[in-house]
Write a structure and sequence with these properties.
- The protein is 48% helix and 10% strand.
- The chain is mainly alpha-helical.
- The strands form five sheets. It has a three-stranded antiparallel beta sheet, with helices on one face.
- A hairpin with a 2-residue loop joins strand 2 and strand 3.
- Helix 8 crosses helix 10 and helix 11 runs antiparallel to helix 12.
Length: 450
């Protein structure tokens, strides 16, 4: 290799991917998070340019002679043992002036370490960044990028940032003229932007288990699944597999199945294989469980179907046919989730694209719920029915972010109580009675059409 060739080779090095891999190596996945992010926990992290707002009701106090803070006269005090009373007063006084995060240690005259400890205690609880959240919300609503609506401070910052940037771009350039090849390239580019950000410096690690070991921005996950059957059951040797357990409990899923009445998905639709649901285990699993094995090899037929469904959705909605447009959009999501074209972030990307279309044509998107799990467990025809139910049940006419957030969190709480009640039930008869007594909750759970 000549010196000139070597120089050209250096110019071709994908430095951003090297930086991303270094970031992944130094930012291990959060062990306390489960795949569904069902635990209520602060995940949003402030950055230096964020303006901090302290809850007005916070006051300094003492507990057994040690400094503490208190929300109000009836709330229990929160100890701040890392600050003496003088420093606590100085910090609270500075926060009431709404400083930028980068200013906090300089204006309060306490150390960066002490500031960090206070923010670790109070950020998202009594210290907020409403201006930053309003900017993020203006790109994409917080309740439309999560499974179950909750506090926006529970969302990973770079995930929200990247989905927002991608959504703005997609909405501005909705295109129904791409051929399957160009459409596949567009999906791959969108996957890169979801993981790395529009400027390729906002790194995000998806929550799926495979992302602990394999994150490949924009690369199609072509690896096949290998499994073997033995007297003791089916064993998954290697390759892609998607957790398809009955989220919400067996009774819930039996009632979902009963509500649409059709059977398990066939392995082919329009002569194209779309994967299969199996009961099996890998060497590292404690027990057998339900797993979905995506179709491999991926063929032109798969991407033709994705492209056709996307274009059909936009075409129908352009022509004012909401029913046909929503059905095609549901078909697109069902196909994307089952194809599982990328190693990770498939549901995040698929639903971000779906919600871009919904916001453009009906004024709002919807939460992800467990729609991807239903896509893995049901036929396309039945899944479209669930998708339509979700749109009717979770659509909102709220005009302000606060109203939208409040309305959907209240619906989530109603849904949680209903699913908890279903979990304690042993028979379909009892479940039917519960549905009859709580029709709104049953609708939110996608068990009824209205």
């Amino acid at each position: 290799m000549t010196h000139s060739d070597l120089m050209q080779s250096i110019l071709q090095v994908p430095w951003v991917l090297i930086d991303y891999q270094k970031w992944l190596d130094t930012h291990p996945p959060l062990k306390q998070d489960d795949y569904l992010f069902s635990e209520s926990r602060i995940r949003f992290e402030p950055t230096d340019s964020d303006r901090l707002f302290l809850l007005d009701s916070i006051t300094p106090t003492e507990v057994n002679g040690a400094p503490a803070i208190q929300w109000g006269p009836q709330s229990p005090p929160i100890a701040t043992p890392f600050l003496n009373r003088q420093k606590l007063d100085a910090l609270l006084g500075t926060l009431r002036q709404r400083p930028l995060l980068v200013e906090l240690p300089f204006r309060s005259k306490i150390t960066q370490t002490e500031c960090d400890k206070f923010l670790n205690l109070g950020f998202g609880r009594f210290v907020f960044v409403p201006e930053t959240l309003a900017e993020f919300e203006s790109r994409v609503p917080a309740t439309e990028i999560v499974r179950f609506p909750a506090s926006p401070y529970e969302i990973v910052r770079n995930y929200w940032l990247n989905v927002g940037q991608l959504s703005v771009e997609v909405t501005a350039t909705l295109d129904r003229s791409k051929d399957p090849s160009a459409f596949t390239t567009w999906l791959r580019m969108s996957h890169i932007k979801l993981l790395l950000g529009d400027t390729l410096d906002s790194f995000y690690r998806p929550s799926s288990p495979i992302a602990r070991h394999r994150v490949m921005p924009g690369a199609l996950y072509t690896r096949p699944t290998h499994s073997v059957s033995a007297e003791s059951g089916t064993y998954i040797i290697d390759g892609p597999r998607i957790n398809a357990t009955a989220v919400g409990g067996r009774i819930f899923h039996r009632m979902l199945q009963k509500s649409v009445e059709n059977g398990r998905p066939p392995e082919t639709v329009d002569q194209v294989p779309w994967g299969q649901l199996i009961v099996g285990r890998a060497r590292t699993d404690e027990d057998s469980a339900e797993w979905f094995l995506p179709p491999r090899p991926m063929s032109d037929g798969h991407f033709d179907d994705l492209c056709r469904a996307w274009n059909a959705a936009l075409g129908a909605l352009d022509n004012g046919s909401l029913e046909d447009g929503v059905a095609s959009l549901g078909r697109f999501h069902w196909s994307f989730v089952r194809l599982h074209p990328f190693a990770c972030a498939n549901q995040s990307l698929a639903f971000a694209l779906v919600n871009c279309v919904l916001r453009q044509y009906i004024g709002c998107g919807i939460p992800q719920l467990i729609l991807d799990h239903l896509a893995l467990r049901h036929t396309c025809v039945d899944y479209i029915r669930f998708f339509k139910r979700a749109l009717v049940a979770w659509r909102t006419g709220a005009t302000s972010p606060l109203e939208r957030q409040r309305e959907r969190i209240e619906k989530r709480q109603l849904l949680d109580r209903f699913i908890s009640s279903l979990r304690s039930i042993d028979s379909e008869g009892e479940a039917t009675s519960l549905m009859r007594n709580h029709p709104e909750a049953a609708h939110l759970a996608l068990l009824t059409d209205t």
